[in-house]
User: Which sequence fits this backbone?
């Protein structure tokens, strides 16, 4: 292992990059220029080491073992839960449910909340900027329960139409599900204000925080969100583990999502009673190593400082926005006043797929297509966008390479 | 007329002269630009092979026992590769198309474009080409199963 981690000094992107082994790689003969962090972030050494260490020295199944090793694994798993609770400012450990990712967290709420509370004639309110993961689970439960989905429109800059939202909240809405930060547009929604509005009508709110948590400090108590879903792998932690925060009052009223071991209190063939929170929602052996990696990622994020990360990414976003806007024919999709580190764009006369293919040849990793948000593409009348997204390790030099790469690709294509 | 494999070998030979990826893609892009591949009347939903990222339209007809393919795409690199696929497969008998082993894309370093995860419509298009060949083959042999 190298010497000191970047967490030990003031924020220095060069030092941060040294903590991420994958960033030393070359791609197509060029240093890797990774601009797809919104899809999944890379992993710093402490995360890799924590998981390796767990499997080498501490692994056993959790919760039921009477032996010492199982207790060690259980301690690590539950300590990770505690770390998540403190990280997002949740009131109780029992309000932190481990899942496989944001998608599963939302499916859990849609299914369990939906079965308990949705009836024909009810409405589920979502927005036009949701990821498919915050659309399809609600469609599935609405089909089963006879409830309907209503969609809050967005403006040409990619911001929520708050007047429409206020109007829609007056309807027979049982839950509002929306994203804090749009993965495609970068828009940061005024979640605290929106939650307060919904609560005036007695409507609970699920917040998709997948794109928010890795980039700025989040406190679910301050937001007063009823549910908050996010993923480990987008916050520099491992794939396969996600988090659902839910207020106790709601989680207690909701039926289990999956059945199996761990989630039960007592099982007979006639009747099964369920375990207490959060275990009621955690059937089967959990992703113990994932929780350990997640814990390490949280400590790494805290060591670097989320305020520092937010400031760094904001500066880069402004820098990148200026660079891209100088390119003839380039149109940014998503120009909200309050925006996170996402640069989604199209270039007149070119297809996003062609641009992405040529950028890849130059060692630049961007995402192309609809980014699992097809309604946004339909809204803007485009087949897709090229999306460059930023992380704590992104540099100005990489954005320079992106801008030069786009110009070169456009020259080839036009 | 050259066989499918003779055409594939000719393409491999042509591509061997390219020094780097730039030259190769410049050529593919030019192919894409040059070929007016499909009549506007076939650029409809009926002929659309849906890819997640780029769209492909495919039309096939049987003329004198040979399958004639015409296709198009909204992405220029996809369209260029379609140009190569059509050059290889169009104008051959249904049986030859069904038997064809397309090794040239691997040899010229474009196999990645035929990965299903690429979602550019090319994999579905190739499958659709083989299905057309199968349908025409049955038409020719009068089989009705």
Assistant:
């Amino acid at each position: 292992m190298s010497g000191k981690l970047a967490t030990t000094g003031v924020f220095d992107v060069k030092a941060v990059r040294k903590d991420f082994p994958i960033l030393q790689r070359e791609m197509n003969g060029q240093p890797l220029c990774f601009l797809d962090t919104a899809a999944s972030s890379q992993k710093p050494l402490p995360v890799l080491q924590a998981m390796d260490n767990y499997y080498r020295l501490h692994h056993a199944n959790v919760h039921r073992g009477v032996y010492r090793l199982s207790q060690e694994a259980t301690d690590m798993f539950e300590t990770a839960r505690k770390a998540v609770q403190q990280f997002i400012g949740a009131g109780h450990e029992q309000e932190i449910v481990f899942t496989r990712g944001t998608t599963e967290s939302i499916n859990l709420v849609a299914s369990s909340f939906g079965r308990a509370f949705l009836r024909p004639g009810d409405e589920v309110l979502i927005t036009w900027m949701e990821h498919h993961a915050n659309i399809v689970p609600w469609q599935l439960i609405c089909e089963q329960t006879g409830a309907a989905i209503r969609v809050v429109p967005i403006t040409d800059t990619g911001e929520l139409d708050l007047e429409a939202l206020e109007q829609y909240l007056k309807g027979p809405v049982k839950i509002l599900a929306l994203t804090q930060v749009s993965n495609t547009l970068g828009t940061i929604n005024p979640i605290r204000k929106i939650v307060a509005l919904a609560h005036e009508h007695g409507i609970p709110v699920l917040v998709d925080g997948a794109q928010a948590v890795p980039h700025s400090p989040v406190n679910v108590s301050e937001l007063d969100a009823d549910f908050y879903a996010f993923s480990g792998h987008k916050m520099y932690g491992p794939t396969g583990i996600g988090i659902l925060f839910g207020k106790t009052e709601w989680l207690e009223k909701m039926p289990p999502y999956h059945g199996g071991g761990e989630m039960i209190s007592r099982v007979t063939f006639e009747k099964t009673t369920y375990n207490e929170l959060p275990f009621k929602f955690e059937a089967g052996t959990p992703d113990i190593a994932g929780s350990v990696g997640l814990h390490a990622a949280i400590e790494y994020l805290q060591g670097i400082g989320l305020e520092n990360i937010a400031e760094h990414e904001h500066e880069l976003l402004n820098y990148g926005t200026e660079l891209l806007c100088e390119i003839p024919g380039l149109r940014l999709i998503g120009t909200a006043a309050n925006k996170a580190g996402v640069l989604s764009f199209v270039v007149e006369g070119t297809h996003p797929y062609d641009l992405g293919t040529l950028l890849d040849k130059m060692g630049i990793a961007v995402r192309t297509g609809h980014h699992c948000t097809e309604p946004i593409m339909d809204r803007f009348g485009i087949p897709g966008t090229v999306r460059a997204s930023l992380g704590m390790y992104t540099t100005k030099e990489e954005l320079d390479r992106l801008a030069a790469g786009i110009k070169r690709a456009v020259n080839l294509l036009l | 007329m050259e066989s499918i494999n003779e055409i594939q070998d000719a393409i491999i030979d042509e591509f061997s002269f390219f020094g780097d990826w730039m030259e190769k893609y410049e050529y593919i892009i030019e192919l894409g630009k040059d070929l007016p591949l499909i009549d506007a009347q076939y650029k409809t939903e009926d002929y659309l092979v849906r890819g997640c990222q780029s769209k492909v339209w495919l039309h096939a007809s049987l003329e004198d026992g040979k399958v004639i393919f015409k296709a198009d795409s909204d992405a220029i690199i996809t369209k260029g590769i379609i140009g190569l696929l059509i050059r290889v497969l169009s104008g051959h008998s249904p049986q030859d198309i069904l038997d064809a082993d397309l090794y040239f894309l691997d040899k010229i370093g474009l196999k990645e474009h035929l990965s299903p995860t690429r979602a550019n419509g090319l994999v579905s298009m190739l499958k659709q080409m083989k299905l057309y060949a199968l349908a025409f083959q049955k038409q020719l042999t009068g089989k009705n199963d």
